[in-house]
Design a protein that fits this description.
The protein is an alpha+beta fold and about 375 residues long. The protein has three domains: about 120 residues, Acyl-CoA dehydrogenase/oxidase, N-terminal domain (Butyryl-Coa Dehydrogenase, subunit A, domain 1), CATH 1.10.540; about 100 residues, Butyryl-CoA Dehydrogenase, subunit A, domain 2, CATH 2.40.110.10; about 140 residues, Butyryl-CoA Dehydrogenase, subunit A, domain 3, CATH 1.20.140.10. About 50% of the residues lie in helices and about 15% in strands. The protein has ten helices and eight strands. Helix 3 runs antiparallel to helix 4 and helix 6 runs antiparallel to helix 9. The longest helix has 30 residues. Belongs to the acyl-CoA dehydrogenase family. This is Acyl-CoA/acyl-ACP dehydrogenase. Its cofactor is FAD.
């Protein structure tokens, strides 16, 4: 009998890739509690990802990468998060960014080629640091307070970025900065130097091992060629599905833990495990309905993005809805799993307690719920014109 988790695996290539992801996830799960308690960055997990060749999954084939589809990226993220949500979310930003850069062509080709070749050769990773304390989420449209000033041969950037996921391990990253002389914001590829400082501020209730600290730029130099000037094409934001895929993986892990518990836990007042109780079966059924609706929507959105290359901007409402649905359903799935397990689920030694904290972080990842709902309303109203 095919496992439910394998329902969306379509061929042998995908089957082999998710097998690798499952093996990594099992290894990461053994380390997850320690990194969560310490709030420490799991460098060893990323060494394993590099050794397994996973950091190049979204690099275009012409540069030596695997060039996986969005559907396949969702598969990989989901399986990895089954073992450790924080590692999956963190590496997802790298994989998603490379995927996005390749799909949009927003980077100058020589600069993108250099990045891709470094990813394949050295296991280099990338992320974009855009959030700031004063501007809030960049998806809301706030102007960066980080400033870029023209200097000989390039630019000097000064500012402080928050929510800088992967910051402990990156040797380069993209920064959004405002250029006063142009009256506009732009993106710059910043390379590590003595002018770049990491401030360890990340101490949260969930996703504690993503290394999302503050990064301070003190007149950090960026060469002219490292300013990212192209706008590229609009890809509809499909790459952001790496986020709900992560929370779907956490929900699956919570569901499986609760099912195992229900099948094996038999209190002394029963002659059968609690899975025989109608109330428990009702909760399991509700949990399963939430899970299957969310997964179906997630994979359908990814598949449409892959197939409808000319219509990707028009898929933005559906992509946002997939994130909205998966994240909120995942929260409810973990909640129901904890109801099945009962008070034991509150123990720090129980992974459900970590899943409960981690899965709520999805509410604060883009696109935000309010943005998704507003976009759906706008789309519906325009549909009548």
């Amino acid at each position: 009998m095919t496992r439910y988790i394998d329902q969306f695996v379509r061929n042998d290539t995908e089957r082999e890739r998710v097998k690798i992801a499952e093996e990594l996830a099992a290894r990461f799960a053994q380390r997850a509690e320690r990194h969560d308690r310490e709030g420490s960055f799991p460098f060893e997990n990323f060494a394993d990802l590099k050794e397994a060749g996973c950091l190049k999954l979204t690099v275009p084939a012409e540069f030596g990468g695997e060039a996986i589809s969005l559907y396949e990226l969702v598969q990989f993220q989901e399986r990895l998060a089954y073992g450790d949500g924080a590692t999956a979310l963190a590496v997802g930003w790298h994989l998603g960014q490379v995927f996005h850069f390749g799909a949009t062509g927003k980077w100058q080709r020589p600069l993108f080629a250099e990045l891709c070749e470094s990813v394949v050769r050295d296991g280099t990773m990338i992320n974009t640091f855009a959030s700031e304390a004063a501007t809030g989420s960049p998806s809301r449209g706030g102007r960066p307070e980080t400033v870029a000033v023209r200097t000989d041969g390039g630019w000097k950037l000064t500012g402080r970025k928050t929510f800088s996921t992967l910051s402990p391990i990156l040797d380069r990253f993209v920064v959004t900065a405002y250029i006063p002389e142009e009256g506009a914001a732009s993106e710059f590829l910043v390379r590590q130097s003595e002018r770049v400082r990491l401030v360890e501020t990340w101490d949260t209730i969930g996703m504690r091992a993503t290394g999302s600290h503050d990064v301070v730029l003190e007149e950090a130099f960026v060469a002219d060629g490292d300013r990212i000037e192209g706008k590229g094409i609009d890809d509809g934001g499909g790459w952001l599905l790496h986020i709900p895929a992560c929370y779907m993986g956490i929900a699956l892990a919570a569901r499986d833990y609760a099912l195992h518990y229900a099948r094996t836990y038999q209190p002394n007042y029963l002659d059968k495990p609690i899975s025989s109780l109608p109330a428990v079966q009702q909760t399991i059924g509700e949990m399963e309905a939430e899970l299957r609706i969310a997964r179906t929507m997630l994979y359908a959105a990814a598949d449409r993005w892959d197939r409808e290359s000319e219509n990707r901007p028009g898929l933005r409402p559906e992509l946002g809805l997939a994130k909205y649905t998966v994240t909120n359903h995942a929260i409810r799935i973990v909640d129901k799993a904890m109801r099945i397990v009962g008070g034991a689920s509150l123990s720090r030694s129980c992974p459900l307690e970590r899943y409960y904290r981690d899965v709520r972080a999805g509410l604060h990842n883009p696109p935000m719920d309010s943005t998704v709902i507003q976009n759906l309303a706008t789309t519906a109203l325009e549909d009548l014109v």
